Amino acid sequence: MSGSEQSPESDGPAVGPDVDDGLPAAEAFALLGNETRIDILQALWRAPDHPVAFSALRKRVGMRDSAQFNYHLSKLTDHFVRSTDDGYEFQYAGEKVVRAILAGTFTDRVSLEFPVAGECFECGAALEGRYSDERLGVRCSACDTTYGRYAFPPGGLRDRSDAEVAAAFDQRVRHLHCLAADGVCPECGGRVATEITPDDDDRLDLDVRVDHTCQQCQHTISSPVGLSLLDDATVVAFHAEHGVDLTSTEHWTLDWCVTDQTTAYDPDRDRVSVGITLGGETLTVTLDGDLRVVDTERRCEGADGESAATV
Ligand SMILES: [Zn+2]
Ligand SMILES: [Zn+2]
């Protein structure tokens, strides 16, 4: 398996978000358990300009009883919306609630299967995309091999063809990893720690994997080492020289990216190298334990065409 996300419930220490001020989460969610309040948040979202005056917001919700409207609005105030001199506007949590509704996280239930580009690196059979439990993955249609499975909001399936869903999934996985590798949690914005670790618990069925773990919410993204090289300048240039545009190539069609077949791990030196072969030439990229590229080397098949570069 080539990549995954873990929530703290399923893996890692049983530590919740450290909310040290404001309303306890359960009480905050309880405030949302009312259709009028959800209507207010959605009306605020649809308003063309912000802040929105009390009377304008009440009209948008279509509620005649001003006192009742005021009651529900006051329940949201200081938690999901804030009152200003010019009217009401979103607080961060209120906007997140509406986005979650738009993404379908709370409302849609779908599952589907569709063909995607690429062949299984284990058995050569065609690959397929599979959506279930609000997670999208790419897997072999014949054997059990999975090439990554990640949370994907149901809203991302809407108005997209199968090919467009596959392309969106490719981009989403790249960006999740990019953000995490840059030290920012894609879920909560917290600080992310990155480490190369033996895949001893077979989370990905590899010898070695990369874990990005949020220090705040414990959200973890795990992947093969190669996946972190997708936006490496040397790797991108190497592909361009061989006529491959790496940005538009689905990452699961790249063996070095989703398997560890060309990955060598030296735990004593805390070094991992990834070999990428194109047109008879191999680029070997060596990374340290913090996932920094410490060396690159290009080698042509045959004797003389050898060149090396160190960064
Ligand atoms: Zn297979
Ligand atoms: Zn986080």
The parts where pLDDT drops under 50 for at least 5 residues are: 8-20
Q: What is the H/E order?
A: EHHHHEEHEEEEHEEEHHEEEEE
Query: Shape, please?
Result: elongated
Write the CATH homologous superfamily of the domain at 25-103.
Winged helix-like DNA-binding domain superfamily/Winged helix DNA-binding domain
Give the CATH level 1 class of the domain at 25-103: Mainly Alpha
Number of continuous helical runs: 8
Structural class: alpha+beta
> What is the share of helical residues?
25-40%
Strand segment tally: 15
CATH architecture of the domain at 25-103: Orthogonal Bundle
Overall average residue pLDDT = 88
Please give the largest β-sheet: 5 strands, antiparallel
How far apart are the termini? 31 Å
Bound molecules: zinc ion
Q: Strand content of the residues, in percent?
A: 25-35%
The largest beta-sheet arranges its strands as 11-12-13-14-15
Q: For the CA atoms, what is the radius of gyration?
A: 24 Å
For this structure, the CATH topology of the domain at 25-103 is: Arc Repressor Mutant, subunit A
